[in-house]
Specification:
The protein is mainly alpha-helical. It is 68% helix and 4% strand. The chain has a 3-stranded antiparallel beta sheet with strand order 1-2-3.
């Protein structure tokens, strides 16, 4: 556990600070009945929602990795890479445990983006909120987004987990046998299979989270009203920070990811063998 001491201290400190903030806010808010489910106390419900994120994400990482890894491999090998040459580079678990925050940041971006997309669905509003609660569309949206955080966080981690499985296995490919490369009209490339998926997943998550945040903040501005003005301004200031907050809740996944490195690598390479991916690439850049 000494390997993870630094990040465990950071995570526990964050959780304690978060819970302390909730307790203080609960003292000012009192009992607020919002959701049809959970405890019917908004402060307690909020604690349950956020504290369930690490649990859901760990489960999603395991299920998503073991389900999507063979699927991603199949799509790339059989659909996208029919004239590519695949191989395996020997990989070892890093000596130091680093990058825990960055490994969780883009899954958090993806989760936040999916949550914003779903949060404006009136069907969800009817299912989630008690009939006596009628605060207006913007508050409906943020409270729907709030209760969706565990689910969408699990989706974000689940999708990214397969890319991490593939990246850590060392599977790579070269396009040196493609006709346009052999003609000299396109450069020779060597890429990792996991890096291929990470590139597009990070690009989508990074770009669309900005667009989604802009739309969310714009919805706040469009419904500014007298006595609610302060509430909306607070949300406008705080919600752009929420993806980073979710990232901290996801940190235990990075520890599980590192701890299960060899087991997951063995699983991925077993599937690579089934897709006839074995051995190192021979002259991947085609210079010999």
């Amino acid at each position: 556990m000494l390997r993870y001491k630094k990040w465990l201290i950071i995570w526990i400190s964050f959780i304690v600070s978060f819970c302390t903030t909730l307790i203080i806010n609960a003292g000012f808010m009192g009992t607020v009945n919002v959701y049809k489910v959970l405890t019917h106390n908004l402060a307690i419900d909020t604690a349950i929602i956020f504290l369930s994120i690490p649990i859901v994400c760990i489960i999603a990482f395991i299920i998503g990795g073991y389900f999507f890894t063979p699927l991603f491999m199949f799509i790339h090998k059989k659909v996208l890479g029919r004239d590519l040459i695949y191989g395996i580079r020997e990989m070892q678990r890093p000596k130091d445990f680093k990058g825990a925050f960055m490994n969780s940041l883009f899954p958090a971006f993806l989760a936040f983006n999916i949550g914003i997309i779903l949060s404006n669905e009136s069907v969800l509003h009817d299912l989630l909120f008690v009939d006596s609660f009628n605060p207006g569309s913007a508050i409906y949206q943020i409270l729907t987004l709030l209760i969706l955080f565990p689910l969408v966080s699990g989706i974000g981690i689940g999708v990214f987990s397969a890319a991490y499985f593939l990246l850590e296995s060392g599977i790579e490919y070269t396009n040196k046998e493609r006709k346009k490369v052999r003609r000299g009209s396109f450069p020779t490339e060597v890429r990792s299979l996991g890096g291929f998926y990470l590139y597009y997943l990070k690009g989508y998550a990074g770009i669309w989270v900005i667009i989604s945040l802009f739309n969310l903040i714009f919805s706040f501005f469009s419904v500014l009203e007298g006595v609610s003005f302060g509430i909306y301004i607070i949300n406008i200031l705080l919600w752009p920070l929420m993806p980073f907050c979710i990232t901290f809740f996801m940190l235990p996944v990075s520890i599980i990811q590192d701890f299960t490195y060899e087991r997951r690598k063995k699983f991925t390479l077993k599937w690579a063998e089934k897709f006839n991916i074995r051995g190192q690439l021979d002259d991947p850049l085609g210079v010999n």
